[in-house]
Amino acid sequence: MKQCVSSSEKTQKTFKVSANFGSEKKRRRRMGKGRAPCCDKTKVKRGPWSPEEDLKLITFIHKHGHDNWRALPKLAGLVRCGKSCRLRWINYLRPDVKRGNFSKEEEDTIIRLHHAFGNKWSKIASHLPGRTDNEIKNVWNTHLKKRLKPKPSQSQSNLADVSSPITTTTLSSDSSSSEKMEQDSEKQVPNEPINGFTEDPKESSPASFSSSDHSSSKPEDEDGQILESLLKDDDPLLQIPMDTLDFDIWNVLENPESFQSNDFQVPSVSDDADQNKWLRELENELGLGTSEGFNLPRNAEDADMGFLESSWSSWTEIYNF
DNA sequence: AAAAAAACCAACCGCATGCAA
DNA sequence: TTTGCATGCGGTTGGTTTTTT
Fold first, then answer.
1. Chain C nucleotides covered by protein, CB below 7 Å
2. Which residues have Cβ atoms closer than 7 angstroms to strand C?
3. Which residues pair with A261 in a beta bridge?
């Protein structure tokens, strides 16, 4: 099965041409002439994020929040467009992002919600705590859309059950019909509740970083309760396993020597006893039994390290280790 | 083992929307 | 009411990885 590889991991392994992401000609053509770009594309870095950039963004947001995305990159020492920072944060770095493969329940939920809302990815994401609109969109386009094209022998399958309440919508094996269905659902936002999921204009975007985000979007109608029952067994936000975290962040923190830049440096070790004490505390917080391979150095007197540590405790609090 | 095709998904883009001046 | 800015959203792209031939 497919491995969940973090973007930064990919970056380290393979990415080569970040400065030439897409064709400039094509971009200009798409852009038209009316609107100024949000930032000077020639002066910002594009393409996959490095672990160093990720860490800068994380620590900055934990310290200062993200009131102004446009100003954030400069303040955080990032050579990135504010939009890019926002996207990176929302889709990958936010502590409440759930990584890893989608469960059957989550997939079924997406299918139901897609019938109700169409391609309103952010709305769908608001019903799936920890999942981002982008991720859901990708899953839909790569997996679920295909699943909705039933094979002849599959017409009464489990899948059909999932979407069975929507009897007014034709589920055709014809791909063009299937796509048409999707297009139709894009065009019309249903006025009537379909499958129990109703349009709720009060629903907020899942994008903002708030510990109460997922609880505020709890569905309250009948099918919402069904959805709730799908989700309630395991609160994904409280059960994010270590291996679903973006390993590169851990890796960077484990090996700070690999994370050095002019304006953002991790101080060197000066006190072994202090380091060991901190490591023990960290292990306790993380519920780790051993410190093997976990040798983040620490200088207690160093203010920079202090902020790194405070970021750590924020993360450990948020993840409820 | 190598090449080709398919699948995957992170990141991009422009437009839409909301809000303040 | 208009204008301009910031953010959110959904569609699309294209590089990488996996599977198939």
1. 5-19
2. A 1-3, 5, 10, 13-17, 20-23, 26, 38, 66-70, 82-83, 86, 119-123, 133-134, 137-138, 141, 186, 205-208
3. A264
What's the burial of A124, exposed, middle or buried (CB within 10 Å: 0-12/13-18/19+)? buried
Q: Which helix (H) or strand (E) holds A260?
A: strand A260-261
| Confidence at residue A150, expressed as pLDDT on a 0 to 100 scale | 55
How many angstroms is C1' of C17 away from CA of A3? 10
Helices first, then strands: H and E counts in chain A: 16, 2
pLDDT at A149: 62
Cα–Cα dist A314/A251, whole Å: 18
pLDDT at A22: 32
Residue-by-residue DSSP string for A141-152: IIIIHHHTS--G
Q: Residue A253 CA to C4 C1' — how many Å? A: 42
* Lookup: tokens for A65: 């929040």
What residue has its CA nearest to the C1' of C17? A2
**CB of A252 within 7 Å of some strand B atom:** no
Q: Is the pTM of this model over 0.90?
A: no
Burial grade of A72 (CB within 10 A; 0-12, 13-18, 19 or more): buried
Q: What residues are paired with A194 via a beta bridge?
A: A197
The pLDDT tens digits for A63-98 are: 888 888 888 888 888 888 888 898 899 888 888 888
Round to a whole number and report the distance in Å from the CA of A82 to the C1' of C7. 10
A22-26, A122-126, A188-192: lowest mean pLDDT where?
A22-26
Q: What is the mean pLDDT of residues A21-32?
A: 32
Contact in structure between A11 and A49 (CB atoms under 8 Å): yes
Number of neighbours of residue A37 by Cβ within 10 angstroms: 11
A263-295 pLDDT per residue, tens: 333 333 333 444 344 334 433 333 333 333 323
CA to C1' distance (Å), from A136 to C20: 27
